[in-house]
Amino acid sequence: MNNVFRSGRDYFQFLSIVMILAIGLGRGAVAQEGQREEEPEKSLKPPVITGYAQINYLQFVKEPSKDKESGFEISRVRFAFEGEIIPEKLEYAIEFDPQGTPILDDTYLDYMFSEKARFRAGRYKIPFGAENPTGEDELTFIEKSRIVESVFSAREVGIGTLFDISKLSGDVGYFQKAEDEHIERDVIGHLGIKPFGRLLDVGASGYFEHISTDSTRFTINRIGLDGTITAGPIQLQGEAIFSKGTVEDKRIDAFGYYGHVLYSHEVGDTPVSWGLRCEYYDPDRNVSNDHEFRYIIGSTVQVHPQMRFQINYQRIVQVTAGPDDVQNKVIAMYQFNF
User: Fold this and answer.
1) Per-residue pLDDT averaged across 258-266, rounded?
2) CATH fourth-level superfamily of 8-337
3) d(CA 78, CA 93)
4) Which residues lie closer than 8 Å to 333 by C-beta, 6 or more apart?
5) CA-CA distances (angstroms) from residue 31 to 25, 81, 86, 91, 92?
6) Which among 183, 136, 149 has a CA at the least distance from the CA of 254?
């Protein structure tokens, strides 16, 4: 396989070409089928073009040495194309990230078994936990939690199945890439249950990663637990992740969690939410004095169906063998969708 796909990017580019060919062939097949059948066929939904942009302002508080890091930035820009190849059976999504590498972000084909079950192939967000599958334009706080950002990649290339039937939902996939003289093979999945409908949603995730080189093999296992309680205008959500394994003869034992409370209401016709969040992250529990706490207070104002404004105050405490490293910063974000 290394002779064919020398990197994960080569593999992703190959999949993208296959998707483009499939779209073209699928449309041709539908056209030919329509010519053969006298009865009217279900028409394709017109392709949908969407996107969003996020502009951030960062300001460190009471830290003159950090002033040079303060200022504006365009944190995210996305362009997405979605449509059908075969009506109600085969769908596609292609998302561009002009700032990213690779430039193609979520890019996949979905085969619909039914409205509640589908098969997916391509590059997409891995099915782990409650926060990672959430779109960056829909996050409760401006940044994802430290543990979610640190212990795995948000997206991978692979195949998987998704279902949402009655009170059960699930997503499991197989992902593989070859780069830097090694091959990674991952089995990742999430199972959720809503025993009381929207009131309670609990889930468990597994991420089993195998890294192979010419001479050896490493294994990293990650387990996640998540839960969400929604009662009227109040939401409580939490997630804990455990990561254990060996990389190049070094044992890894990471752990982290986050928990937040969110209160939502309206001012006139404008939706407004207020949130408080606590995070903990320890990259290696075998090493003392290297963990981190984050405390975040934030608000989101949906000023228009296509625009929102967020502001977060963060206090970050990095525990060290000496004096703790403490940072305080304010992040403001303006987002518009199109």
Assistant:
1) 98
2) Porin (2.40.160.10)
3) 13
4) 54, 55, 56, 57, 75, 142, 309, 310, 311
5) 10, 21, 10, 16, 18
6) 149
104: which 2 tokens? 């193609």
For 28, the token pair is 């041709």
Which pTM does this prediction carry?
0.84
**Phi-psi group of 66: left, alpha or beta (phi > 0 → left; psi -120 to 50 → alpha; rest → beta):** alpha
Residue 248 CB partners (closer than 8 Å, separation 6+): 218
Q: Which residues are bridge partners to 250 per DSSP?
A: 247
pLDDT tens readout for residues 225-246: 999 999 999 999 999 999 999 8
Reply yes or no on whether the pLDDT at 127 is more than 50: yes
Q: Where are the domains of the chain?
A: 8-337
Please enumerate in sequence order all residues whose Cβ is within 8 A of that of 38, keeping only pairs 6 or more positions apart, or say none: none
Question: Which of 148, 154, 143, 128 lies closest to 255 in space, CA to CA?
Answer: 148
Q: What is the CA radius of gyration of the chain?
A: 22
The answer to whether 36 touches 129, Cβ cutoff 8 Å, is no
